TrEMBL record:
<dbReference type="GO" id="GO:0008726">
    <property type="term" value="F:alkanesulfonate monooxygenase activity"/>
</dbReference>
<dbReference type="InterPro" id="IPR011251">
    <property type="entry name" value="Luciferase-like_dom"/>
</dbReference>
<keyword id="KW-0560">Oxidoreductase</keyword>
<feature type="domain" description="Luciferase-like">
    <location>
        <begin position="10"/>
        <end position="321"/>
    </location>
</feature>
<keyword id="KW-0288">FMN</keyword>
<dbReference type="Pfam" id="PF00296">
    <property type="entry name" value="Bac_luciferase"/>
</dbReference>
<keyword id="KW-0285">Flavoprotein</keyword>
<keyword id="KW-0503">Monooxygenase</keyword>
<protein>
    <submittedName>
        <fullName>SsuD, alkanesulfonate monooxygenase</fullName>
    </submittedName>
</protein>
<dbReference type="GO" id="GO:0046306">
    <property type="term" value="P:alkanesulfonate catabolic process"/>
</dbReference>
<dbReference type="InterPro" id="IPR036661">
    <property type="entry name" value="Luciferase-like_sf"/>
</dbReference>
<dbReference type="InterPro" id="IPR050172">
    <property type="entry name" value="SsuD_RutA_monooxygenase"/>
</dbReference>
Length: 340
């Protein structure tokens, strides 16, 4: 069983500890910070880093191209939202970047769980319709990557005549596809197209159930791998790790008070994204699941992304990660500035 550790880089220093109004995947660009952040991951032995996506942030293709030139071994997971460039163009862009990065990229497909996010870029399709579009989009992208002859395509969202790309991915049979999404519509599309299905950090029993659901929806015989996003909060002793965790939470709450944001998502708050909603439900059930899966940061921030943590000594957190791996996962992901 292989295990891959994935970090995350942004384009400027940002943290919920200091300013809860800034996005970890958006904002301005600090070139020196980007280079340093990437090198820290490479020198620290991370296998890959996620370059995130938001409707107000820098373009991930350019970020990956820049960081690939500043590193040698580190691989990249480029978040990409279908629907805003043609799938034929996306396929060529990714294949080109695969060559210029010497085969170090993968693409993370995020269809989008927030109508407001989508509408900033002019997308007014509803949630399930967006996933039907993603299905067509990935059909076309994969075919462009692998087809040796021009092809036509007639779908609900895309109609193509003699589509073809002279540039094919360096990686064969194509650039690895990661996929995120917790809804039923997401599972059907992701199980069909992805090489790696990504989850946020939920209790082990829930992860086992979700793995079973994705595998059941996948084509017969497909070899799927799985990723879990968690924030490691480490200490020399377990007591020091929990002290650090509560300090981090207090800093987040203080920064939210200063920004005029309520401390907790509250019972009436319900995000559109199904994954975020699930994390809030687990946080409402209890603060700690499976001995050290800690949920209060998810509750305090509205579960905007990877917001659950594993708390303990390095050895204890490693033991907890091994339990996720033994949930028949092939891939484990650790992300989050708060865990460093």
């Amino acid at each position: 069983m292989s295990v891959e550790f994935i970090g995350m880089i942004g384009t400027r220093e940002a943290s919920e500890l200091h300013d809860p109004t800034v996005s970890l995947t958006g904002g301005s660009i600090d070139l020196a910070y980007v280079r340093k952040f990437a090198k820290v991951h490479e020198d620290g032995g991370f296998d890959r880093v996620l370059v995130g996506y938001s409707s107000t942030g820098p373009d991930g293709f350019n970020v990956v191209s820049y960081v690939a030139a500043a590193t040698e071994r580190l691989k990249f997971l480029l978040a990409h939202r279908p629907g805003f460039v043609a799938p034929t163009l996306a396929a060529r862009k990714l294949a080109t970047l695969d060559h210029f990065s010497n085969g170090r990229i993968a693409v993370h497909i995020i269809t989008g769980g927030s109508d407001a996010e989508q509408q900033r870029d002019g997308d007014w399709l509803d949630h399930d319709t967006r996933y039907r579009r993603t299905d067509e989009y990935l059909d076309i992208v994969r075919r462009v990557w692998t087809s040796e002859e021009p092809f036509d395509y007639e779908g609900e969202f895309y109609q193509l005549k003699q589509a073809f790309s002279e540039v094919k991915p360096l990686q064969q049979p194509h650039v690895p596809i990661y996929f995120g999404g917790a809804s039923g519509a997401a599972v059907d599309v992701g199980a069909k197209h992805s090489n790696v299905y990504a989850f946020w950090g939920e209790p082990i029993a829930a992860i086992k159930q979700r793995i079973a659901e994705v595998k059941a929806a996948a084509p017969p015989g497909k070899d799927l791998r799985f990723s879990v996003s968690l924030r490691p909060i480490l200490g020399e002793t377990e007591a020091k790790a929990w002290e650090k965790a509560h300090y981090i939470l207090s800093r987040i709450n203080e920064s939210r008070v200063k920004a005029g944001i309520q401390l907790s998502a509250g019972a009436s708050f319900r995000p559109q994204a199904v994954g975020s909603s699930r994390l809030l439900d687990f946080a409402k059930e209890r603060e700690i699941h499976d001995k050290r899966l800690w949920t209060p940061i998810a509750a305090a921030t509205g579960a905007r992304g990877n917001t659950t943590a594993l708390v303990g000594t390095p050895e204890q957190v490693a033991e907890s990660l091994s339990l996720f791996c033994h949930s028949r996962q092939r891939k484990s992901r650790n992300q989050g500035e708060l865990g460093k």
